[in-house]
């Protein structure tokens, strides 16, 4: 792999003195690059599908949405500033999710992403990644088998009305959505506030899914600050997210060889009737 990284740096015309591996997972490789006082992070993608992240960085830069500064890129890799050596930026820590000032700034970043993303998706969003595209009849069958819930009444209700759910998703206003909030994917800038990085799951979606994804993980005061900064959004989307988000989580978990711990909360929502209740509420709202 080190020869591959050297080849990428050569294509970028970047000199180096030291190359060290930070992390390699699922065909995505992170390397620290040092050249004198210059320090970078290179992200290399073996999987062609995951290379969409390179384009996503460029999209956000074109839209003037704050990201980690990009130095260079190729079709397979992207070279970024190493923010662990930045005078302005730092990686977030868990305590930041309880910091009202930081979360106020984070809301501003999400607001910019969503506002500028609406027009971008209208013009260029046709083939963009959308996580709810995984909601299909075939994937629901996989979930039923993997979770041993074949006889649960929620599946009959969803299968009979699947076209309605998909139509609701299709007709809800779309924008750019981050989709993968967690503090380890967040950076804090002294000058510009908090922002997210790692854009492999960035795509098109509806605003409420992003808002819920963030605020469920914030402390109460930080959550209030987030909502104060973000302002109004279409609350009717929230019940759609309650259903579609649960299904996406179940499908993603069921596609893993080993069912992940985070998936069991969604399985419980199937078993205790909460998902069925949410789905019926969604159908009533849209009648």
Question: What would you note in describing this structure?
Answer:
- With 287 residues, the chain is α+β, with helices and mostly antiparallel strands.
- It has helices at residues 2-12, 52-62, 100-124, 137-147, 153-160, 162-171, 207-215, 220-230, 237-254, 264-271, 274-285, and strands at residues 18-25, 28-35, 38-45, 70-73, 77-81, 89-91, 175-177, 186-189, 193-196, 203-205.
- The strands form three sheets. It has a five-stranded antiparallel beta sheet, with helices on one face. The chain has a three-stranded antiparallel beta sheet with strand order 6-8-9. A two-stranded antiparallel sheet has the order 7-10.
- A hairpin with a 2-residue loop joins strand 1 (18-25) and strand 2 (28-35).
Task: Explain the layout of strands and helices.
Blueprint: H1 2-12, E1 18-25, E2 28-35, E3 38-45, H2 52-62, E4 70-73, E5 77-81, E6 89-91, H3 100-124, H4 137-147, H5 153-160, H6 162-171, E7 175-177, E8 186-189, E9 193-196, E10 203-205, H7 207-215, H8 220-230, H9 237-254, H10 264-271, H11 274-285
Antiparallel strand pairs: 1-2, 2-3, 3-5, 4-5, 6-8, 7-10, 8-9
């Amino acid at each position: 792999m080190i020869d591959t990284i050297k080849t990428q740096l050569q294509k970028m015309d970047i000199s180096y003195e030291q190359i060290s591996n930070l992390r390699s997972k699922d065909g995505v490789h992170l390397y620290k690059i040092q050249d004198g006082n210059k320090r970078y992070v290179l992200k290399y993608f073996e999987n062609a599908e995951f290379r969409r992240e390179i384009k996503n960085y460029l999209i956000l830069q074109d839209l003037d949405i704050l990201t980690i500064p990009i130095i260079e890129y190729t079709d397979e890799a992207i070279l970024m500033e190493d923010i662990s050596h930045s005078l302005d930026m730092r990686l977030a820590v868990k305590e930041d999710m309880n910091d009202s000032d930081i979360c106020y700034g984070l809301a501003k970043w999400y607001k910019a992403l969503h506002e500028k993303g609406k027009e971008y998706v209208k013009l260029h969003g046709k083939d963009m990644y959308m996580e709810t595209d995984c909601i299909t009849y075939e994937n629901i069958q996989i979930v039923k088998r993997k979770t041993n819930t074949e006889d649960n009444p929620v599946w009959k209700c969803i299968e009979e009305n699947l076209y309605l759910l998909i139509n609701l998703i299709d007709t809800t206003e779309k924008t750019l959505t981050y989709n993968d909030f967690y503090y380890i994917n967040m950076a804090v800038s002294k000058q510009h506030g908090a922002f997210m990085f790692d854009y492999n799951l960035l795509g098109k979606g509806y605003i409420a899914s992003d808002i819920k994804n963030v605020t469920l993980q914030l402390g109460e005061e930080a959550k209030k600050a987030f909502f104060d900064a973000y302002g109004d959004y279409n609350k009717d989307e929230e019940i759609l997210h309650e259903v579609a988000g649960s299904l996406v989580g179940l499908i993603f978990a069921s596609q893993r060889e080993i069912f992940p711990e985070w998936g069991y909360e969604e399985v419980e929502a199937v078993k205790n009737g909460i998902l069925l209740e949410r789905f019926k509420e969604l159908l009533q709202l849209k009648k």
